[in-house]
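Chapter review: from sequence to fold.
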Amino acid sequence: MVKLVLGNCLLLLLLMSCQNAETNKNMDQGNAVSDSNIIAPDSNLRQQADGDTLQRIRSNFERVNAITDWDRIDSAYIHESTEGGQAKYYIKNDKLELIKVKNYGEGGYTFQDYYPLNNELSFVYEEVFQYNTHIIDPKFDMDKTKKSGEVRYYFKDGKLFKAIATDKEMEAYIKDSDEMENALSSIYNKLIKIKENGYNPKGISE
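The token string follows.
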């Protein structure tokens, strides 16, 4: 199962990409803790710094998802997967607060919410959906599409420092590899360039 989910997720990403009531569902509510009773001073400081960063990310997440009166929602078609996709940019007080991305592939699709904080990527909430078969298979049935997993990615200073996935094998892979960090960072940077280009993906994502 993990290979299927991970394969689908990586394919869509590498080829490309709630209100308060949903907060508990979409965010991890616990700070990182050590399994050991004895923590080295440098480890303790690192842990405290990560905990502070997580709190800032959660606070920003809650603030953004409490916004209901967006000043503007702009969109752009992107071409980061085999079947293309769309990005929607949520603007409040002339500030980009959220980018919602849908990317479609031959075996499924992903929904990703990108949360900037201080002009840097801070958090990505991702849902992965899998078709019952390849889209050209006569047995393909959109109604049989199933959600195969979700992942929460936490970034600090441009680096992925925490990942939580419904599939723990997939979570371990993400933590041990920089593929997802690179893929998400690359997509986010492209999304920002598209916005700066008047929401025109030409020369950026095509």
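Two observations follow directly from the output. The radius of gyration is 18 Å. Confidence is low (pLDDT under 50) at residues 1-40.
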